[in-house]
Amino acid sequence: MEQFEALWAFQAEDIKADAIANAIKRSPTRQKLEKARDFILDRQKQYKQIENEITAMVDRKDIIEQAVARSSSQLEALKARFVSNPPQSPEEVKALLSEVSRCRDTIRQYEAEIARIVRESTSHDKQQHVVRMEAANAKKSFDQLKAEYEKESQSRKAELDEQRAKARALQDAVDPALLEEYNTIKRHISPPVARLTHGQCSGCNTSLPSAVLSRIKNGALVECETCGRMIIQ
Ligand SMILES: [Zn+2]
């Protein structure tokens, strides 16, 4: 019983400390700070993505340039064959010409693709520049906000430290196993301990069966089946 009272006293101060910590977290400056951080992270991701796309373009351009070189030497070979071994019949002339035209078409297609890649990578470069500028500006406002937030939270932090110390002093009187239970419940619901009032759990107002009531009255550790809080008398 005494243990439960010690826990109850500790909870009162512990919850006050949490309220201060939450107020610090909910500060508008902190929220702006988090937004600025998310913005920077997003721009960094975008930058990396553009960079990957540019790398892929450069690789593709290399491959196409090699293909152009191959088609060009093929074309040269055809021309040389025309000189050294001129076609003898109209069919041979036709066949050779169609081979030449196929080769030229291929080169033209490749060159068009290279031009497209060059255009795209130029626009990617510009985009990357914009993203970098945006990230740099966001970093500036992030730093400003951070300084502001640190200044603002300094006094609140002192208050929080004081309240945490108050809670810690009471915590020492609580049985470690009970404290562990308290912390486990607190991960799901806070405050984790509720009083029994008029046969109900005061945390969720559920009426408790008489068997449970007598266990509580006998000083057993009972958790509410509805809200999960520890119920004490
Ligand atoms: Zn309950």
Bin the helical content: over 70%
Radius of gyration in whole Å, from Cα?
Answer: 38 Å
What strand order characterises the main sheet?
Answer: 2-1-4-3
* Tally of helical runs: 5
The biggest sheet amounts to:
4 strands, mixed
% residues in beta strands: 5-15%
Instruction: Measure the end-to-end span.
Output: 8 Å
Q: Can you write the helix and strand succession as a string?
A: HHHHEEHEE
The shape, in one word, is elongated
Provide the residue-averaged pLDDT.
Answer: 94
Ligand kinds:
zinc ion
Name a few traits of the molecule.
233 residues, mainly alpha, 5 helices, 4 strands, 78% helix, 5% strand, elongated, binds zinc ion
